[in-house]
Amino acid sequence: MESVKYLIIGAGPAGLTFARRLLDHGETSFIVLEKEEEAGGLCRSVMVDSAPLDIGGGHFLDVRRPAVTAFLFRFMPEDEWAYFERDSRIAFRGKTIGHPFEANLWQLDADSQVEYLLSVARAGCNTGEAEPEKFVDWIRWKLGDRIAEDYMLPYNRKMFADDLNELGTYWLDKLPNVSFEETLRSCLTRRPYGTQPGHAAFYYPKEYGYGEVWLRIAASMEDYIRYRQNVCQLDAERRIIETEDGGRYQATHIITTIPWDCYNSIAGMPEELRAGIAHLKHTAVEIRYVPEHLDTAAHWIYIPDENLPCHRILVRHNFAAGSKGYWMETRQENTGGLKGDNFRYLNRYAYPLNTVDKPAVMRMLMAYMRERGIYGLGRWGEHEHYNSDLVVELAMRLEEELTGK
Question: Is the overall model pTM greater than 0.90, yes or no?
Answer without folding.
Answer: yes
